[in-house]
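Exercise: predict the fold of this chain.
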Amino acid sequence: MKVKINPSKAVGKIIAPPSKSMAHRALICGALSEKSVIKNLAFSKDIEATLNCLKSLGAKVLVKDDVVEIGGLKADKVPDGAVLYCNESGSTLRFLLPLCMSFGKRITLTGEKRLFERPLGIYEEIAKEQNILFQKTENSVTVCGKLKPSNYRLAGDISSQFISGMVFALSTLKEKSIIEITGKFESASYVDLTVCCLEDFGVKVERSGNTLIIDGQSSFESCEYTVEGDCSNAAFLDAFNYIGGNVLVDGLNTDTLQGDRVYKDIFEGLKKGEKQFDLSDCPDLAPVCFALSSFFGGAVFTGTKRLKLKESDRAETMKRELLKFGIEVEISENLVEIKNGELRQPKATLYSHNDHRIAMALTLLLTLTGGSIESAEAVAKSYPDFYKQISKLGIDLYETD
C-alpha cells in the first residue's frame, strides 16, 4: 500500500492505542491462569501472533470486540509437535520460546525470515547447557526439553525481551530461580513491566537492582486486566504538536512504568535546542526522535547499537530515508547523529522497509513537505488504524494500491 500525504496539520483529540507491550504480557499471564479477562486490546499483527501462538499451545480463547477471555494453558496438555506462527513479532518469539523450552514437548516456532535473522543465541546457549533440543533454520526454531530452575547470568545490554522471556518461563516452575544481570542493565523498564504484570496475576518476582528472584511457589491467578495506553505509539501522535499541530493525546496512565514515557522529555529537549539524548532504555523511540530532530536542526543520540536488530536496521533505514528529505545522518557503533539541514519535499517515494515505526516517523515529516510512502501497511504491526486516525485529525492523505 502506498500513502500519498499532502502538507497539513493535525488538530483534535485522540485516544492513545492500547499498549502492545502490556498486551503481550497480559495475554501470556492470562493464558497460564484458569480463565482471565483481558480488556482494551487492539488486534495488531503482533498481538494476533501472540494470541494465535497461545491457542496453538492449548490455551482456550474467546474474543469479543476488544476483550479476550483466555486461560487453561497447562504444560501437560501442550500438544507434542505444536507449530507456532510468530509472523514478524520479536516479542512473541522471545517471550514464548523459553516457555516452550520448559514443556518437555517438541514445539516449532515459525515466522518471517527477518524475524529469525534477529539474535536468539542467548536461548541457544541455555538450551545447550541444559541438553534441550534447539534446531534453528532460516525461518523457524524447534525446541524440546525441560528448562530447569537455576541461577542464570544474562548480559544487561541484550534485548530485555530475552530477560522477560526467561522470567515468564521460570515463573511456571516449582522451584526458586535467580537471574543476575551483568553489566549495564539497559531497557530495565521493560523488565519492570513484566514483573508488574506477573504480580497482577499473582506471581511473585522480586527485582533488587540487577537481580531477579523468581520464588517458584506462585501460581497464575485468574484476573480481570485492562491494558493501558501505549506510550510508544502515543509519541508519534504527540509529535504533531511539535511541528505546528494541536493534538490532545488522551488515555495514557500518568503512573506508567513504560520506558517510552520519556518521549515527552526528549521532545521538549529538542524544542529547547538540546543536542544529545540517550536512547538505551527507549530504543523504540529512535525513529520518531530522529524524524523530529531533523525538524529542530539535528541532534546526537547515544545507546543506539541495538537498532540494527529491530524490524529493520532502524539507524541505516532512517539514514537512507532522511537523505531523501535532504537531511544527512552519521552512524557509529552506538551513536547516531542527525545533521542540521533544511527539510525539503522528497523527489523519490519513501519506503517503510516493512517497519511500522519507520512508516509512522516518515509520515510525520511528510505532513510538512508532502510526498508518498511505499509499504505503509507496515503500521498494522502495532497500530493498524494509524492512517485512519490521523486523517480524522485533519492530515490530508489518501491510500493507493
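Check your answer against the key: DSSP finds 13 helices and 22 strands in the chain.
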